[in-house]
Amino acid sequence: MINKKVFILIPSGIALRNFAFTKFHDLAKAQNLDITYWNSTPFSISEMGYKEIRLSNIKPHWLTGILKNARKTIELNLNIKNTGDSIYNAYKFPASNKSLKAVVKSIITKISTTLFSSPKGLERLKKIINKIESSTAYYNNCVNVLKKEQPDFLFCTNQRIVDAIAPLLAARSMGIPTATFIFSWDNLPKATLVVDTDYYFVWSDFMKNEMLYYYAQINANQIKITGTPQFESHYDSETIKTKEVFYKDYNLDLKKEYVCFSGDDVTTSPDDPKYLDDFAKAIASLNTKGYNLGILFRKCPVDFSNRYDNVISKYKGLIIEVAPKWQNVNNTWNTMLPSKEDNILLSNTIAHSLFVVNLGSSMVFDYAAFNKACGYFNYNQKEQLNTNWSIHTCYKYIHFRSMPEGAVVYFDQAEEIEEKILSIIKIKSDTAKKAKLWYDIICKFPQKESSNRILYEISKIISKKRK
Predict the structure, then answer these.
(1) Cβ count near 108 (within 10 Å)
(2) Which residues pair with 297 in a beta bridge?
(3) Which residues pair with 39 in a beta bridge?
(4) Span 28-33, mean pLDDT?
(5) Contacts (Cβ under 8 Å, ≥6 apart) of 314
(6) How far apart are CA 37 and CA 310, in angstroms?
(7) How many other β-carbons are positioned within 10 Å of the β-carbon of residue 448?
(8) Per the omega criterion (within 30 degrees of 0), is the bond before 446 cis?
(9) What's the whole-number average pLDDT of the chain?
(10) Quick one: which of 99, 205, 266, 461 is 20 to 30 A from 35 by CA?
């Protein structure tokens, strides 16, 4: 049987976690798919023994990024108009005026937003983006690679990266079927769909309905419900260490039970160190009352700041940092690189902690995979780093509307954290069960079969094309 040749487009570091550091490649081989990674990240996939072609001459048209921002703003404005819901304004990024170049970009964005502000205008804007991208040397280089390699399918692993537009346009110009993966559970309401493809792979029925709502031009048969590989490592029992080994690796106290504090990035939670301080204070108080608890602190993988150092030092011995195994290669979002080892570390951190606390993070689903609960902070700090920011805005975001009641424990004020910790530990409420219900809403069950479902859909599309 002739192997079907599939190009996996890796336009960002985060895509490596899902499609290079899981069993995706081995499963593809078992399904008679010949995988080649078309890679733009600094990470060398070929060193893993996989086929790799480097994306070269990566230079989108200078206007594309500006028009992409206009496209996003128009989509969000249309969502506000259609729903009457102002929360979509929270997904907009403020224009920069730090340099003359930034000011010029901002002016062009505003003009484009005004000129193309209707649904028909939006479609014209997309055509302009495609036209200018097709005029670049980058696009021509992509065409040449595809002509030489002749893949049967091109699968883009991240729908929000401008660098992915030209490779996908090149493939479609040659009649090669294309698809993109919606890489995060909150992306569709945020208007982050930058690429247009033949097919769209989503996590769940819920996400499919979102896509049909926000993108009426996409037909239901173009959307494939697959789940996401990002949780699959949690079901690999071979990678879970014993408690004794994990505790020894991080100099943990075998007499203690640990709770995980999962950090957020500075934009999502500018006051995150203060929440860690509040939580550590509550844990320390419980320990004076006969409990023996500690905190495993896992920083947000793309946060390489030192903003937590003072709190960790203040509660030395109580807070143990279990740092994510990521690299900051070029100080940009696309070049924050995960590792296969971090997938294993995350699974073990969950396996050996009681529950997790954070601010609105998808870590609730990672813990749900282990049937463990999650607590969300739900109060503003008295002294805020950014007075324009509010924690309550976070929970008004569209993706939280999928949450069943009781799926997380809310810490509504610092003074009640201690009590809420005890409710999770002692009362054994239904929080974990309801979190699992939410997990099943967001990501198709069984979650451990996501890669197989993705590969099955790719094979079906290729077979259909060949007929």
Answers:
(1) 15
(2) 261, 321
(3) 10, 54
(4) 94
(5) 277, 280
(6) 42
(7) 17
(8) yes
(9) 94
(10) 205
Cβ within 8 Å of residue 217, ≥6 positions away: 123
Q: Please report where in the chains the tokens 């570091």 appear, as a residue.
A: 13
| pLDDT level of residue 3 (50, 70, 90 thresholds) | confident
Q: Which long-range contacts (CB under 8 A, 24 or more apart) does 304-309 make?
A: 304/328, 305/266, 307/266, 307/272, 307/273, 308/263, 308/272, 308/273, 308/276
Which residues, in sequence order, are CB contacts of 258 under 8 Å at separation 6+?
252, 293, 294, 295, 296, 320, 352, 353, 354
On the question of pLDDT at 263 being above 90, the answer is yes
Give the pLDDT score at 1. 52
Tell me which DSSP letter residue 175 carries: T
DSSP 272: H
Cβ contacts of 426 within 8 Å, gap of 6 or more: none
Res. 466: pLDDT tops 90: no
Q: Bigger pLDDT: 196 or 56?
A: 196
User: What CA–CA distance (Å, rounded) separates 219 from 189?
Assistant: 18
**Would you say residue 333 has pLDDT above 60?**
no
d(CA 467, CA 462): 9
Question: For residue range 270-306, what is the model confidence (pLDDT) as tens digits?
Answer: 999 999 999 999 999 999 999 999 999 999 998 889 9
State the Rg of the chain over Cα. 23
Q: What are phi and psi of 38, to 5 degrees?
A: -100, 100
Fill in the DSSP letter of residue 104.
Answer: H
H helix intervals, 254-308: 272-287
By CB atoms closer than 10 A (0-12, 13-18, 19+), residue 357 is buried
H/E element, 461? helix 450-466
Q: Transcribe 410-454 into DSSP letters.
A: EE-SGGGHHHHHHIIIII--SHHHHHHHHHHHHSPSSGGGHHHHH
Residues 6+ positions from 210 with CB-CB distance below 8 Å: 188, 189, 202
- Short-list 16, 5, 68, 19, CA closest to 43: 16
Q: How far apart are CA 142 and CA 172, in angstroms?
A: 11
Q: Give the orientation angle of helix 100-115 with respect to helix 64-83, to 10 degrees.
A: 50
The CA-CA-CA angle for residues 182, 391, 417, to 5°, reads: 110
pLDDT at 110 over 70: yes
